[in-house]
């Protein structure tokens, strides 16, 4: 009898839980993951992070779920990129429009530091609460660049780098001691465009005049009471007070990502149903497989992995359209070109390809995107940077100061061309520039082809310049402003699928497949990311990122994080 009573009580609680009001939670303390982990190390490091796609899917479902009454989001100090923030803001605004309560809570929006972008996210919510000891670091947008040329020269290090063209400023950190006119122009317009977006969003969310928001930005940062008086927050409350006010008696708390996965949110798609493929490309672009160095340094887009995923989706008869999510500052030209080719082949196969840009889709990130049917970017996405640079650091003088003697034996006039011990000869520098000219010409030509522009107009928009998504759309480098959910909806429409057609992440495989060596280059498991344990490769790549002698042409990241 006791066992029967326990079963009956358990079933009763489950039924009650299924019908109880739901208050969804989202904790952004650890940030969000852009896509699924590409390797075991990344999987471990991102265990505590929700995935953006799951959060967006959950909030979309919540709009039509009568059980969901409210959303509470804790905005933490771990910075989110501007593109991701705009994805979340759009989802929150739509949830508000559906009649759900939306509440943002933060212990602080910048503890003695900038908090403009976190507050920009909070301003989309119906109610914004701040811990009494917190502050609102609404201070505007600043892009700061440090120049190391003179410091490196004192140490005996010289950089020989060619670039195409004047706006391709990623290497300026090492080759200049100040902002060039083109550099300042580009950075100034980015700051201006982002500020326009933030001012408009805060003004709309808080019911303030845009000019008043600009005045407040110039007056920030604010202590809590000042923020309340200015209308930036609705009250000073601790977490328990926020939850007591928002969560009604009998309501059930549930994380958004759990809600998205729950069987209560909808039925699993039929295995044979027509579907949209979602392919994620996050990080620097390189040849080989996606993953990360076992010594750290973040994730990378491997051309083998992404090409195999696109091929798999192209050949799958159930896949009717492809959404390619790109969040990358660029990288290898050859790897980018391989991925570009697979996008072209997917379109030739009659499958619409929609690119959804994240925080950054610049240089190689734009290269892999430009052949898509439609490019969807957030207003704050950093994109474009259609150009190239390459060269090497020369550390011969530094090695001499340290007492390091370098000798070499070579066969071939240019065998030691990429040695960091000596500068390029005139003939070698001519070859470097021929290489840069070829890449730039190919890049611009493919932009013109993919975006239906003349080559002259493509060059005018290129020259290495970085644009915000809003400016890129105005220039014709992007088609629509929006996020991942918009791209998925567009893909469904282009393929003639219903609005709730399922989405599958590619490549599709069981986690245990990670342990199995591929059978051939066409084996789907070849797209899996594996942890590389070779010692030299990761060390060399890390050295290159730090500006130390590594191998071949140097790839230098050169994009700002807007906070």
Q: What can be said about this structure in brief?
A:
This protein has 563 residues and is α/β, with parallel strands linked by helices. The chain is built from 21 helices and 23 strands.
Quaternary: single chain
CATH topology of the domain at 269-387 and 424-515: 2-enoyl-CoA Hydratase, Chain A, domain 1
CATH architecture of the domain at 269-387 and 424-515: Alpha-Beta Complex
Largest beta-sheet characterization: 8 strands, mixed
Record field, number of beta strands? 23
Proportion of residues in β-strands: 15-25%
The helical percent reads 40-55%
Shape verdict: globular
Q: Please state the structural category.
A: alpha/beta
Weakly predicted, low-confidence segments: 524-563
CATH class of the domain at 269-387 and 424-515: Alpha Beta
Average per-residue pLDDT, rounded, comes to 86
Rg calc: 26 Å
CATH-assigned homologous superfamily of the domain at 269-387 and 424-515: 2-enoyl-CoA Hydratase, Chain A, domain 1
- How many angstroms separate the termini? 61 Å
Count of alpha and pi helical runs: 21
GO molecular function: serine-type peptidase activity
Family: Belongs to the peptidase S49 family.
InterPro entries: ClpP/crotonase-like_dom_sf (IPR029045), Pept_S49_pIV (IPR004634), Pept_S49_SppA (IPR004635), Peptidase_S49 (IPR002142), S49_SppA_67K_type_N (IPR047217), S49_SppA_C (IPR047272)
Pfam family, one: Peptidase_S49
